[in-house]
Amino acid sequence: MKLSTITFVFIALLSLTPFAAYLYKNLEPEKVSAESVFTPAAIKNGTSDATKSKTAEGNTQSSVEITKIADDKDTASKPKKVSIDVKYPPALNKTSPLGINTNEIYEQDASIPFVDLFRVSMPFNENIRCRKQDQPCLTSAKVEYDKQGWPKKLNGGKAGVFFIRNVSREAYPEGNYTVLYDGEGKIDYLQNVEVVKREKGEDTIQLTARADGFMTAALQIVESNPEKPLRNIRILLPGGICQGKPFEQVADSIFCKDSKYLSFKDHYKTILFNPDYLNFMKDFNVIRFMPMSGVTRNPAVTWDQRPKMDKATWGGIYGSRGAPLEVQVELANRLKANPWLNVPHAADDNYIKQFATYVHENLDPKLTPYIEYTNEAWNSNFVHNEYMQKMGIKEKLDQDALMAGYKYYSKRSVEFYEIWEKIYGGHEKFVRVISGWDTRPDISGIILAYKDTYKSVDALAIAPYIGGNTRGFRESETVDDIFHLLTDEKSYRSLNKVIDEIKKHQKLANDFGVSLVAYEGGQGLVDWATRDYMQHPNPLFFGANRDPRMADLYDTIYKEWRELGADLFVAFSAPRSCNASGCWGLKEHIRKDLKESPKHQASLDFINTNDKWWKWDEIKAVKKPGSKEVAKYLPKTDPDKPRIVIRPAKGDPKHFFRLENPQALNILLEGDSWDKRDISGKWQVKWDKDYLYFSAKVYDKEAKNDSKNPEDDDSVEFFIDPNNSRSKTLDKSNDFHFIFARNGKKATFGSGTSKNQKLDIPFDVEEKYDGYEIHAKIKWKDLGVTPAVKNKLGMDVVINDDDDGGKSDARLGWNTRNSHPVPSDYGMILMSGR
User: Fold this and answer.
1) Residue 676 — pLDDT band, cuts 50, 70, 90?
2) Which of 222, 265, 267, 279 is nearest to 243 (CA)?
3) Are residues 414 and 699 in contact, defined by beta-carbon separation less than 8 angstroms?
4) Domain boundaries, the chain
5) C-alpha span between 786 and 783 (Å, rounded)
6) In this structure, what is the dihedral angle of CA atoms 528, 534, 537, 543, given to the nearest 10 degrees?
7) The domain at 644-831 falls in which architecture?
8) Quick one: signal sequence residues (predicted)?
9) CATH class of 278-633
10) Where does the pLDDT of residue 675 fall: very low under 50, low under 70, confident under 90, or very high at 90 and above?
């Protein structure tokens, strides 16, 4: 069949865009008409349960500019533009005060964002390692791949993927699923998949459920012609949509009496998004793409390393998964949702420039992007936190790795904003976001105050999560117990505690003249130590998330958020399955009934009864305070106040050396670089009436002990000033400097503590896979101290690291910034009786 004139014109116009280029490259002309094609933001009318009582705008004609995404080589060229008139739907989310986080792109995602299920599958080359017995090794190690990740030669092996893993069968529509592929070969299907029919280049399958109602689905390429390798696999939902009703999936054409039926099989390339997914996302004013983009633990540096449209799959492990920017912008345009966009922590300037350029030239100009450099830069669970610290140390922003990390995050964020401003010709058209830790306003203050970062920021973002009393949760027996802890004023991260932290951050935001927004938030019921779905207390968490009282909790936090003066609240998250890692989604899967989804219901109710109450032009117009007015938020050390409190050793003596509340060793005293896995550590002391118990854990990749002086090798130094003299010199009588060598058995002593030479201080060394631990107990009588509650002592700890023999390559300290500390450099320790 020949292409119609209008289709030909459409293809010609869109040929300049990366998204359209991808569509055109894979287009089946005889099956596509102009009416079936969705251009950015060109969806038809839809309805929303949350917005029935709101006044909707009528359809308007608007011009969408679509440009070619630039590669690294295109930095000097100006992309050409082409305008296409498209119809916009009613702005269903224009007045919504809530946003929503997307999910990671992977095979366990219960939000089912795409019509093509293969988009979220685990890449072939990531299925080499075997997992559980009922989940076989799908891919052979000898398989060869092309640049996009498709197997090009099996070499006698097989290549497989999981495209669904442990998701409720109810999340997927009933019916026959179409599997299309190019090339020659054969696909086998595993787990909860039944083959209905096979044809050349096309299989028909059905999905079945396990006894528990969940399912896992996988496929294997078992035969492939090396000359025409089997590739370009698509796994398509059954049915399609009716033209003009993009938020509703229908089984077949009989349900489209008044409009044209567009099957997923024929139009998947242009429909792209699952109607159920669009229907869920349409009610939110902002879509935060951080999870979908794969920013978390993403090592990308250059623009060429970004997720691309032609990649075999967008799923994968952390660091490899992520939907392309084109898809993120496309979803925002279709739903008229303001996109919240993040870039990887190591992205270079050109990456940021090209990213901003694409958004500027392809996002609906009526939309306002929220832009954020990386995600949770302060979170030590993420590799980007370590990156901040390394870069901060490298640029000599501070000796303390933690402080250096906070400062680098501030510095790089400002540079990030400045690149966007050059592309946009100012900052009026986007929102500059920087994030803080919801329970640490002191850190947020440092991040904003450092070198006047706040003057380049529009919004401080935090994540107000309710529920963190792990010990209490483990002792709970009923869902009622869980709700008691969630609302008990004394319980950690209870509703009232979280509201108190919001108040502190709102005051801080006011002091800096910025808006307070939530980049994530909601319930946070999780026990990270659990590994099994049914392990206690997980079933209680799941029950609480399904309980009507959870809706009341969400209603309260939303209302308190507004009443305290904060602005946008971006909930976490799009539908997700409940598992050992939490129950984070507003629904448990994309098709879950609203009546069984109290968090989603509460969110829709709040949207329906509250219009967006802030305006960014007014917020940006607020005059920022002077530097002196916010200087109080920069850290100051008071040597006359205790740095830490040490607690008594109680219970089983085997646990006296357990690191329960350790102090981090972050201050680089000597050396040019810092590495969390090669030169870092933590320490702790406990006490009883006879002994001081000292423990230190050192992270060190390689042991070196080849010098006469233990300070030149891997070792730990422990300084004690029993009378807390704060002296600027060592008195050589009651100042103590113990040195514990990694290969030693008895402590040696520093030159300034001659009295200590007579002491006999044995210690134990435990070698670990990632370093070593030192355990020593020191008699109080040897220190000339009678231990007592409220006693004050001076202490410090230094670790030495040698990697190449000879003298140590680096020294890292706790409180001191002097490589050879004296009592005035030590931190003050207060002895506690509890």
Assistant:
1) confident
2) 267
3) no
4) 5-98, 116-236, 278-633, 644-831
5) 9
6) 110
7) Sandwich (2.60)
8) none
9) alpha beta
10) confident
